[in-house]
Task: structure prediction
Amino acid sequence: MKKLICIATVASLVLACNSKKEEQTTAPENEKTVTKTNERFNKTSVFEGVLPCADCSGIKTTLKIDADYGVAQNNRFELITVYQGKEPEKEFSEKGNFNIERGLDNDPDGTIYVLNWDQPLEKQIYYGYYSANPEKIYLLDRDRKIIKSELNYFLTKRK
Result:
């Protein structure tokens, strides 16, 4: 009787060890699938234009957005600005993280990029576009609203 209990115990241990191996071999396959799926959602967009400037002829602006729609922590931006008409013209470059919010004005499908979202409010910069025209991105005010002006406060997407 004792031998039968020992054999049953050893057999169940062996079976338990084998089933864990099967779980481990299937997990990496699932991880590969997730990685491949997320790769489809990586997207880089570049927007360019000249924004108004109070004491220069304009601010040449380039905004590069690297969006990873699978992992929010991987959303990166680079904002390059050149103050034109001032000697010497200096190029300023800022890099950081951004977050994506939905809804711009009356467009629930519009998109807002919150640059430096992980920084204090005074360091955050807002750009947004309407879902009907994602090729044109607007510089937004602190309330995440489009700046109403006769001046050009938008950038266009580079093809």
About this structure: The radius of gyration is 26 Å. Residues 42-157 form a domain with the Lipocalin fold (CATH 2.40.128.640).
